[in-house]
Structure formats: structure tokens, C-alpha cells
Amino acid sequence: STVWVSLGTLVTGQHLPKNKRPKEPGENRIKPTNKKVKPKIPKIKDRDSANSAPKTQSIMMQVLDKGRFQKPAATLSLLAGQTVELRCKGSRIGWSYPAYLDTFKDSRLSVKQNERYGQLTLVNSTSADTGEFSCWVQLCSSYICRKDEAKTGSTYIFFTEKGELFVPSPSYFDVVYLNPDRQAVVPCRVTVLSAKVTLHREFPAKEIPANGTDIVYDMKRGFVYLQPHSEHQGVVYCRAEAGGRSQISVKYQLLYVAVPSGPPSTTILASSNKVKSGDDISVLCTVLGEPDVEVEFTWIFPGQKDERPVTIQDTWRLIHRGLGHTTRISQSVITVEDFETIDAGYYICTAQNLQGQTTVATTVEFS
């Protein structure tokens, strides 16, 4: 049976009690109350908002034996020595792979573009090849190409090699600069996905916890210092354990950087601002900056248009400024021998790094 009430609510499956008589018309009235009933509004999915974000389409395939294909997982574990072949669908494909393979122009790596797909092949793989392999479709107009963010593919490959838990380093000792305004990475990456990795200070000897607040471990990068400061400096190393084996990485010297990033902080100084005929003159251009940031110098000088012979020498070194702060001092010296009247005037030095450039000048007069 179905009973209707005056609020318009449908109640199904309710039977009248046997011991009660049916109510007469008008008896089933409900007394008015002040209670407000909030109508339920059915939730409707916004199709436009759901589809507004571009969907990323994986275009990468891994070629297996006997001509079989599969989409590679986010991480792969392969034995060193195996051949890796990756294909990405598209007529113009860009590739990225471990920098180690680019540094030495390795002949084991082959990248080809076919009519419908790009192909990357790596033969005789080693543990040093461990890293990210990625591809993307290039959208080109004339000579300008850009990455199609919606059509990409990537996989991180661990190449496991007997006796190598860490990705080999080209040196036994490396320097990591701690800059207060950016992350620093101790790059002890492993070749075994299941390896347990810990960070240790050499002196005083102790384990440095990766607590997720100051330091985190990223298997693709190493130990990441999120907000480096001077207390982090010192010599550290990593320890890996896997399959009952353990190994210690190379050592890393952590140096704190005193100079913030930005265009070069440049000064210029002449050995003398008044020079007699026949004397020698030197003008020194100096930059104080971050230890790992290179500086390029260019000069403009009075005798340049007359092709006046000069000597220009560029040098750099690291200096310690107390409290463990390390700075790179880069210098360029221009020397003019047998000073003449055409050598008098402005000596202009321009110092440039990745953040910008600074130009300074000084005058040298004929005495």
C-alpha cells in the first residue's frame, strides 16, 4: 500500500497497523511547525570542468623480444648488459636520457626518427646508465619547436649490476654547494629499487635522518636538502643495503655559499689612473659569486678600433670567508704595454652569468 502525507513525501511499503481503524478524510492533517526543510539538490558532474584539464597521453612503448610491445611502468629494473629499445609515437619526437650518455657521446646509444615513431636503442647497458628516459611530441612551426605537454612518455630504469649498489661516480670525492635560496642534492642514487639508503656524516660520525622536513630522499635524485643552511656543511656519504649486501658511496663535501644568486657583483680597478708614455698599465675586473656559477668577461678599451695589441687573462678560485662560507672569485685582467695616447680613455668590463650581466668602467688618463 502507499500512503501520501501533506508534505508531499512518498512513503512506500508501509501497512496500516491491524489494531487501528482507517482514518477519516481530514484526520491525517499535520500541525504546522517552524522547522525548515532544506531541499536536497542532486549533484550533477560538471562535464566542462572535468574535461578542461588536458589529458596526458602516454606515447612510449618498450620493445620486448620476438617483436612484442608493452607500455613501460613508471620504474623498470633490468640487468646490466641488456639492450633497451623504446619507441614513441609521432613524426617528430624529442628525447631526454641520463646526462652520462650525452657527456661522453656514447656510441652505445642510438636515437632515430622514423616516419611514424621515434626510436631510442641502448646496447651493452651498465649501472651508470640508470636514470630517466623520456620522450615527447614536438610541435613545430617553421624552425621553432615546442613540447606537446599532452603527448609524452617516460620511465625510470634501474640497471642492476653485480657489486654496484650505487650509480658509479666519475670521481671519489665530489663537492655539493649549499645555497640558502634553493635546494641542494647529494646525488647518491642506487641501481636497486628495493635498496635501503641512509645518509651519514663523516665527523662527528653519525647518521643524518631524512625526516621529510629538512632532508628527504628521492630515489631518482638522492638526498635533497630542502632549505640548506651553514649547519649542514661538512663531509657526508651514503650507505646502501640490499639483498644482504651493503656498500658506501663516494664522499661529498658540502660547502655553504655566502653570495646569493643574481647578476655578477662586479668591481673594476686600474693599477694607475694616470700613466706616462711608455709605461705599462693593468685594469682588473673582479666578480664575487656562487662557487658553481661560471662568469664570462668581455672588454671594450680605447685602442680597440686601432687593433692595439693587449693581453687579457681570466682566472677564478674558491675562497673561504669565515664561518664555512665559500665564494667564487672570478677575475679578468687586461694589460697594455708601452702606453700611448691612443690608450687613454674608458676601460669597460662586462661580466655575465646565467642570471644577467653587470658592466663597470674606469678611466685611464695620459700623464
TrEMBL record:
Keywords: Disulfide bond, Glycoprotein, Immunoglobulin domain, Repeat, Secreted, Signal. Its main location: secreted. GO terms for cellular component: extracellular region. Residues 14-55 are annotated as: Disordered. Residues 32-42 have a biased composition (Basic residues). Residues 54-138, 264-367 form the Ig-like domain. The keyword Transcription does not apply. Pfam families: Ig_3, VEGFR-1-like_Ig-like. It comes from the Eukaryota. GO terms for molecular function: platelet-derived growth factor receptor activity. It is found in: Secreted. Forms a complex composed of PDGFRL, TNK2 and GRB2. This is Platelet-derived growth factor receptor-like protein. It comes from Pan paniscus. The lineage of its organism: Eukaryota, Metazoa, Chordata, Craniata, Vertebrata.
